[in-house]
Design brief:
About 40% of the residues lie in helices and about 20% in strands. By secondary structure, it is of the alpha/beta class.
Length: about 140
């Protein structure tokens, strides 16, 4: 199922406005994840309520508060670019498909994964705190903006 592009545009912009790179094709996903040095966060964005109320705002808060953060942050949109989402999920195929979800890679290896069930039912502030702890644990530099 693909959503109306006009409907999801504001949801995309919530992430691109904070410097997250959109990945719309499998080739873009592969190129984005090709770097095996540093840290890379991949966000599987979604139209669901927990993406709107916790995931996107939580990421924004975690990044705005400064401190350690991933070197690169990219996003695919579930229900839109189906092939790009499938390709992104192939990099963390041991995890069940989940949207929203967050996958952090360190030096090309999956270091941390949070599925939807660990996002929903919480506050954006609580989720932001979890993200910041994850960044502090796994990210050495803070190059992403």
């Amino acid at each position: 199922m693909r959503y109306d592009p006009m409907m999801v545009q504001p949801m995309r912009e919530e992430l691109t406005a904070i410097g997250v790179t959109e990945l719309k094709t499998p080739e873009e996903v592969d190129a984005f994840l090709a770097s095996k040095s540093g840290t890379t966060l991949v966000v599987v964005n979604s139209v669901c309520g927990c993406a709107a109320g916790m995931a996107r705002p939580g990421l924004r808060m975690a990044l705005q508060e400064g401190g350690v953060r991933p070197d690169r942050i990219g996003t695919v949109f579930a229900g839109m670019e189906i092939d790009a989402v499938e390709r992104a999920r192939s990099y963390f195929s041991d995890m069940p498909p989940s949207s929203p979800s967050f996958a952090l890679f360190k030096d090309g290896q999956l270091a941390w994964f949070v599925p939807r069930h660990r996002i929903e039912g919480r506050t954006a502030t609580d989720f932001a705190a979890d993200l910041k702890k994850m960044f502090e644990t796994h990210c050495v530099t803070g190059a992403a903006k």
